[in-house]
Amino acid sequence: TVSKLLLSELTPLVGAQHGTFYIAESGEEQDYLKLLAAYGASGSVPPQFNMGQGLMGQCAIEKRRALVTDVPQDYIRITSSLGAGTPLSIVVLPVLFEGETKAVIELASFRQFSDVNLAFLDQLTQSIGIVLNTIAATMRTEQLLKQSQALAEQLQKTNAELEEKAHLLAEQKNEVETKNREVEQAKAALEEKAEQLS
Predict the structure, then answer these.
(1) pTM for the full model?
(2) H helices of the chain, where?
(3) Exposed/middle/buried for 110, CB within 10 Å: 0-12, 13-18, 19+?
(4) I need a surface site. Which of 51, 58, 124, 166 has the fewest CB within 10 A?
(5) What's the half-sphere exposure (Cβ side, CA atoms, 13 Å) at 126?
(6) Quick count: other Cβ atoms within 10 Å of Cβ 193?
(7) Contact by Cβ (8 Å): 92, 105
(8) Mean pLDDT, the chain cut into blocks of 10 residues (198 residues total)
């Protein structure tokens, strides 16, 4: 939701017509970038990039902005209902938090990105990094809270089972004590009878 909202606000703000937002994920074998949102995308947008793969993956590893001017005619097409064209400029931006790549954003425009646009994007990606880290921390906290609630429920259940078992043991102990008293009384009665008989 955040990535879609961000692209829908950011892309037109800097005069871009096309944008993608990839989030950094940890894989079993290696980390990768997963597509979360696209703006004005035509055709198929790759669902993921490995670290170091293409401009996106390279930007994630190097942790610095990549700017492509004079984009080749067959690179990508920005389309609308009235036509299609090749962008003049593409910028790939790493979103960092404490030196770690959290996401990568790519924007394409029919015009060159100005120095003001690029300075704004560089500053904004720092803020986005903080937002993404906060969201991830909140999600981890919620997950830990759910785990602790599940553990608390399990403990309550176990506690209730233990209390029930303790109650049953107490009842059994009372029964055994009652039986012992009965056996003692029967034994005393038998001894008395034996004495009477003798």
Answers:
(1) 0.73
(2) 2-13, 54-62, 115-197
(3) middle
(4) 166
(5) 6
(6) 10
(7) yes
(8) 94 95 91 95 86 94 93 81 87 96 95 94 93 92 94 93 94 93 92 88
